Amino acid sequence: MMGVTMEPATSSAIPSTAGPSPVRLTVAGVILFLFIPLVLFLFVRHPAPLALSLAAGVVLMIGHRRLARPYMERVLPWKCVWCNRVLPRADATGRAPSADLVELEAGRHILSARCCSGHCDPAARFFSFLQAWRWLLRLGIFVPLLLLLVALAATAAGRQVRLDDATALFQLVVGITVNVAALGYLFLRPRAAPIPVPFPVHNFFLLGVRTLLWIFRLVGIWWIWKGASWYLRWFLR
Fold first, then answer.
1. Residue 144: which H helix or E strand, with range?
2. E strand or H helix at 30, and its extent?
3. N or C: which end of the chain has fewer CB within 10 A?
4. Closest by alpha carbon to 45, among 140, 164, 134?
C-alpha cells in the first residue's frame, strides 16, 4: 500500500533493551499535551492582566517544542502513532510482532513511526491529507492566530481594537479547519513514503493521532458554535 511500510518492525527501529513504562509514557504525553489547551486558554479567554496572559502563552508555545521533541524521540520506537498504545519490543530475532511502520518526513529527518497492525493505513491517510491540504490548513490556523495575537498585543498596549471579534473569528475559522482535518483524511488515499509532515510532528505523538482527532472534532464543533453565534448576535444588533 502506498505510503505504508507493511514489513514487520525490526530492531533497527526498536531497541532491544527493556521497554519503558507505558504508564509513564502516557502520563508524560498527557502533561505535555496540556500545554496546548493552556496556551489556547490564555489566548482565547485572556485573563487579566492581559499582557501577562499573552506573554505566558507565547513563552509556552515556543518552549513547548523543546520538551515535546525529545519526548517524541523517546517514544518513537515504542508507541503506535495512531492509537498511542505502547507496543512490545523486538524479540531475539529482531522482529516485533503485530507492528508495522509508516515513514514520515519531518524537515531533513525521516522518522519510522510504529503502528499497530491495521493502524498504518489511517495514519498514512491522515499525514497524506495534511500534506495535500497543507496550505489551506495553514491559512485556516495561522492567519486567525496571527490576527488574534495582534489584537491581544494592541489591547495590552492600551489601544482600542475589536478583540472580541478577533477571538470569535479565531474560534470559528480554526474550528472549521480542524474539523476539515479530522474528517478529510477519510476520503484520501495515502501517498508514497516517506510522507512529509507540514506541521510540528512531535504533537502527534503526545496522545496519538486518533485521540487528537476526536479532540479536534469536539472542541472544533464547540468553537464553531461559539464563533458563529457571536457573529450572528453581532449581525442581528
1. helix 134-156
2. helix 22-33
3. C
4. 164
Query: Given phi > 0 = left and psi -120 to 50 = alpha, else beta, which region is 78?
Result: alpha
- 3-state secondary structure at position 78: coil
SS3 content of the chain, % helix, strand, coil (to 5): 60, 10, 30
Contact between residue 14 and residue 75 where contact means Cβ atoms under 8 Å apart: no
Query: What pLDDT does residue 236 have?
Result: 81
Give the global pTM.
Answer: 0.87
Decide: residue 132, CB within 10 A, 0-12 exposed, 13-18 middle, 19+ buried: middle
Q: Which of 34, 57, 230 is nearest to 153 (CA)?
A: 57
DSSP-assigned beta bridge partners for residue 79: 86
In angstroms, the CA 96 to CA 68 distance is 26
Angstrom distance (rounded) from CA 130 to CA 136: 9
pLDDT tens for each residue of 129-174: 999 999 999 999 999 999 999 999 999 999 999 999 999 999 999 9
Q: Find out whether the peptide bond into 198 is cis, omega within 30 degrees of 0.
A: no
Strand partners, 154: none
**Any bridge partners for residue 111, and if so which?**
104
Burial (Cβ within 10 Å: 0-12, 13-18, ≥19) of residue 165: middle
C-alpha cell, 192: 508514497
Question: Could you tell me the three cell numbers for 9?
Answer: 518492525
The x, y and z cell numbers of residue 54, run together, are 499573552
Cell digits for 96? 516485533
CA distance 115 to 104: 12
| Peptide bond preceding 20 in cis form (omega within 30 of 0) | no
For the chain, the residue count is 237
